[in-house]
């Protein structure tokens, strides 16, 4: 049984991370995670933008987002703290969980820089938690130790994120908030709803206003982003499962295999089968 299943948290090094994730192959994290970069650089693609995260930065990944590793430097050194949502919500932490979640969510899919001395302290906390999790020595209160060490880590991150929020993030602008809510809604409803009208109505704004704001913030139209999210979902299903294309069409909410193949080819210039085959060679 993995540490994640047994204790609700697991820590991966850069070696573990790349045993699971191949470059140029889209993946969806099973659980939320913090990724810390001690040295080197990693470039990730997510939905509509590329992101570079380098030394003394962290990012928060989320199971609603599909990522693709574009490149990794040779000196890349990292820790990934992966946890089950129910584990963090079961801990009796004093800070307001909702506020912390908003901070965490606001930082999602952004690399956040923080001072080297703070990184050093977090790095040591994470490594000690990993040491306890990996230890084969019988420990009477191992579960409680893991919970407390993970709580320490959460307090560290809440403090860093709150400070970052106060220093530079302040409040999201109204436009950023519209885009943020739009992306959250698309992540939730894209299997059944693909019209810009639906997402505009969710925020009680006009389709024209939503389209203009999304374009100004992301550089892509709302309909392009909806399509991208569906395409990324299709890529993950095609290269991480053996399900037939007809079944994947159905999972993604297409009326038949033909309409899915037409949609896929329009955006990627290869058929779903051709795309799948390139990973089997």
From TrEMBL:
Full protein name: AraC family transcriptional regulator
Residues covered by the HTH araC/xylS-type domain: 176-278
Entry keywords, A to Z: DNA-binding, Transcription, Transcription regulation
Organism placement in taxonomy: Bacteria, Pseudomonadati, Bacteroidota, Flavobacteriia, Flavobacteriales
PROSITE patterns cross-referenced by the UniProt entry: HTH_ARAC_FAMILY_2
Keyword DNA-binding set for record: yes
Source organism of the structure: Chryseobacterium phosphatilyticum
GO molecular function: DNA-binding transcription factor activity; sequence-specific DNA binding
């Amino acid at each position: 049984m993995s540490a994640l299943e047994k204790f609700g948290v697991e820590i991966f090094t850069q070696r573990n991370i790349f045993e699971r994730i191949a470059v140029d192959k889209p993946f969806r994290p099973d659980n939320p995670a913090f990724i810390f970069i001690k040295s080197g650089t990693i470039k990730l693609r997510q939905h509509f933008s590329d992101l570079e995260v380098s030394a003394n930065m962290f990012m928060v990944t989320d199971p609603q987002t599909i990522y693709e590793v574009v490149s990794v430097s040779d000196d890349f050194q990292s820790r990934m703290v992966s946890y089950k949502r129910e584990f963090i919500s079961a801990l009796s932490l004093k800070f307001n969980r909702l506020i912390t979640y908003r901070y965490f969510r606001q930082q999602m899919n952004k690399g956040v820089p923080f001072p080297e001395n703070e990184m050093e302290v977090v790095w040591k906390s994470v490594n000690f938690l990993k040491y306890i999790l990996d230890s084969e020595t019988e420990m009477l209160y191992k579960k409680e130790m893991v919970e407390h060490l993970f709580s320490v880590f959460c307090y560290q991150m809440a403090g860093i994120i709150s400070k970052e929020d106060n220093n530079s993030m302040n409040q999201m602008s109204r436009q950023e908030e519209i885009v943020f809510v739009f992306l959250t809604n698309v992540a939730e409803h894209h299997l059944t709803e693909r019209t810009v009208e639906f997402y505009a109505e969710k925020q009680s704004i006009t389709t024209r206003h939503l389209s203009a704001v999304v374009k100004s913030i992301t550089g892509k139209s709302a309909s392009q982003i909806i399509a991208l999210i569906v395409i990324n979902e299709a890529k993950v299903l095609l290269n991480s499962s053996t399900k037939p294309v007809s079944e994947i069409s159905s999972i993604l909410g297409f009326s038949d295999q033909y309409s899915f193949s037409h949609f896929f080819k329009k955006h990627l210039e290869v058929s779903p089968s051709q795309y799948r085959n390139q990973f089997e060679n």
